[in-house]
Write a structure and sequence with these properties.
This protein is α+β, with helices and mostly antiparallel strands. The chain has two domains: about 160 residues, Roll (ph1033 like fold), CATH 3.10.590; about 35 residues. Helix 6 runs antiparallel to helix 7. About 10% of the residues have low confidence.
Length: about 210
């Protein structure tokens, strides 16, 4: 299991609200097209053809794109931030959505996210501070995920579901009765008048169904 940071500012505009409300994260360079089957060499050629980025000057961009399209996996963790908060999510699969166009201000390269909670920036540790200041669009946390101390930061957060791992970095098991109770709560939330709550409940159930 890995942890990634994705920048949420695209062309000077914050995408945090969209990412949270629509349960996804994404990166720019939409004109590259679907990246699911693209090799490194194909990506270099596309970056040069469509963005004028020659191979020897596109290293960091290429790395970010490859991490997003191929380095992340379903079930990894992701964090984004705004001025006050860090938001923690559980990643889904990569997909390409060009239904509304491929201009540079749009986000077509996407991954679904089940948002687990948020943490005040002043409460995160020095390892996470370093990650959140990485200049790349996508960056990977290079230490064991337990060093991020996300479980401690999220515990007690009324808007969060805690991330708990064992000492060998594997997820702690939850007993079946607790899982069934949680699913029942989510099923009830599907009937809520709050559309955002319904969407979040549906997303969580679909993630569990995987």
């Amino acid at each position: 299991m890995n942890l990634f940071y994705v920048q949420s500012i695209v062309d000077g505009v914050s995408k945090v609200k969209s990412f949270l409300e629509d349960n996804y994260i994404g990166i720019p360079w939409s004109a590259l097209g679907d990246l699911e089957q693209a090799s490194s060499e194909e990506l270099r050629e596309l970056l040069e053809q469509r963005y004028g980025l020659v191979a020897d000057k596109s290293g960091e961009v290429l790395q970010s794109i490859q991490l997003f399209a191929h380095g992340m996996s379903d079930g990894d963790y992701v964090v984004i931030k705004d001025e006050d908060w860090m938001y923690v999510g559980d990643l889904g699969d990569y997909y390409y959505d060009d239904s509304i166009g491929t201009s540079d201000d749009l986000i077509c390269h996407r991954r679904g996210v089940t948002w687990l909670g948020r943490v005040p920036l002043e409460e995160i540790n020095e390892h996470m501070q370093t990650l959140l200041h990485d200049p790349n669009v996508v960056a990977q946390f290079r230490l064991p995920v337990t060093q991020a101390r996300l479980d401690q930061a999220l515990r007690g957060n009324s808007n969060a579901t805690g991330i708990v791992e064992t000492e060998d970095h594997t997820p702690a098991r939850v007993d079946q009765s607790t899982i069934e109770a949680a699913l029942q709560v989510l099923k009830e939330a599907l009937k809520s008048k709050d559309e955002r709550l319904r969407v979040q409940a549906a997303t969580a159930i679909l993630q569990y169904a995987k």
